[in-house]
Amino acid sequence: MEDFDYLREGDVYLDSACQSLRPRPVIDALNRYYTEHNSCGERVKYAWGRETDELVEDTREAMLKYLKLKSRDYSVSFTLNTTYGINLLLSQFKPGLFKKVVTSDIEHNSPFLSTMSFARKNDIPREVIVREEDGSIDLSKYDFTKALVVVNCASNIDGRKLLNVKDLIKKVHQQKGIIIIDAAQALAHSPELLYKTEADAICSSAHKMYGPSLGIMIVRRDLFSKIDTSFIGGGMVDDVDKETYKLSAESENHAYTKFESGLQAWGEIVAFGQALKWLNKVSKKDKKNFVECYTRLFEYLENNPKIHLINKEANPTMSFYIEGVDSHLAGGALSSRGIMARTGYFCVHYYLDHVMHYPPLIRFSLGYYIRPEDIDKTIDVLERMTK
User: Fold this and answer.
1) Distance from C-alpha of 204 to C-alpha of 74, rounded to nearest angstrom
2) What is the Cα 98 distance to its own chain's centre?
3) Which of 152, 283, 297, 301 could form a disulfide with 182 if both were Cys (CB 3.0 to 4.6 A apart)?
4) Domains of the chain
């Protein structure tokens, strides 16, 4: 794709599950912020600030539109990353709301560790439920009565999806629970999973959506009454007396400030708005190339007798190990040929190491910038490594 013209010939980037490459419009938007309207959002009245405010508001609206959500129901806040967003929510729930906290076995450490901490802090049980091979949850097996449920809707191991996420949300709500979705691996290529969702909160990362390094929190407005704001500072208040203050979030139009303390990454928020526009304009031709590339790579990995593939079906994210070869050494060998891939346990230590007892793995995760020649090269290098 021409928007990734800076990607050098021979370089193959296969670590999109960590962070995607950024298209030119996103890079240009960030540069424009710094060179044309560098300013503090929501604090200044001069022209640069007004432009920043307009673009930031456009990004909030675009995020809701991307998931087909209404501003009357949800508010969009920005933070550092998915992990920060999940922890920010869990650390501020009012006490006594939950009988237990629930997560699943294939979670990234973001939900896995934060739910562990939440259970200890609130002296409640923690349940780790088992996901099916296709990523779904057998809802008949579990009780979510007054539970706080924190799960992903797409895995960062092999991309398996929580296909019954909407049924899960419905059951959790019927049983008077609250559900937070880790959507870090879903929003770039599978946003339809959460179209018109009724989840209480969605946490994700712009840097996995062809945007700059930035966290996203999409929070249902009726969840705010269950939050006791304790992470607080500048940009969150309308008035302050010696011992009291008035939160800006009390105003419906500024509800997002409940999770935005201090100066925000205004340039990154503006640039993320461009990433959302860019995603909405990805052509059918580019999407077709993307699917063909990751399908061909999956089929090669699946059929190479020396490669043990974790995936059960083709997906832009795929993890494997090579029989008799240390994955970290293999990653170094791939890097020496210009192929950049992640190795290890990808922050899913519990499931990959202690449940499945896999050795450290290699992960290939593709983005829209992948080229057919990248797949040719990767297959060629793997062929040489597995002879």
Assistant:
1) 15
2) 25
3) 152
4) 2-19+282-385 (3.90.1150.10), 37-279 (3.40.640.10)
Which residues in the chain come in under a pLDDT of 50? none
| Strand-by-strand arrangement of the 339-344 sheet | 12-14, 339-344, 361-365, 317-322, 307-309
Tokens representing residue 154 in the block:
């797409």
Cβ atoms within 10 Å, residue 332:
11
Closest Cα partner for 294 from 381, 361, 360, 368?
368
Residue 102 has phi, psi (to 5 degrees) of: -125, 135
Inter-residue contact 178 to 172 (CB < 8 Å) = yes
Q: Which of 203, 117, 86, 116 is nearest to 153 (CA)?
A: 203
pLDDT confidence of residue 360 = 98
Q: What tokens does 2 get?
A: 């021409």
pLDDT of residue 1: 79
DSSP state of 161: B
Residues 142 and 249: their CA atoms lie apart, in Å, by 35
Helix (H, G, I), strand (E, B) or coil at 204: strand
The count of other CB atoms within 10 Å of the CB of residue 76 is: 23
The tens digit of pLDDT for each residue in 250-284 reads 888 899 999 999 999 999 999 999 999 999 999 99
Query: Given the structure tokens 């712009």, which residue do they identify?
Result: 206
Q: How far apart are CA 346 and CA 9, in angstroms?
A: 27
* Amino acid in position 365: S
Three-state secondary-structure class, residue 171: helix
Dihedral sign for Cα 275, 279, 280, 282, please: positive
How many C-beta neighbours within 10 Å does residue 43 have?
12
Alpha-carbon distance of 251 to 238, in angstroms, equals 10
- What integer pLDDT is reported at residue 251 of this predicted model? 86
DSSP 3-state of 176: coil
Report the pLDDT value the prediction gives residue 252, as an integer from 0 to 100: 84
pLDDT digits (tens, 9 = 90+) for 163-196: 999 999 999 999 999 999 999 999 999 999 999 9
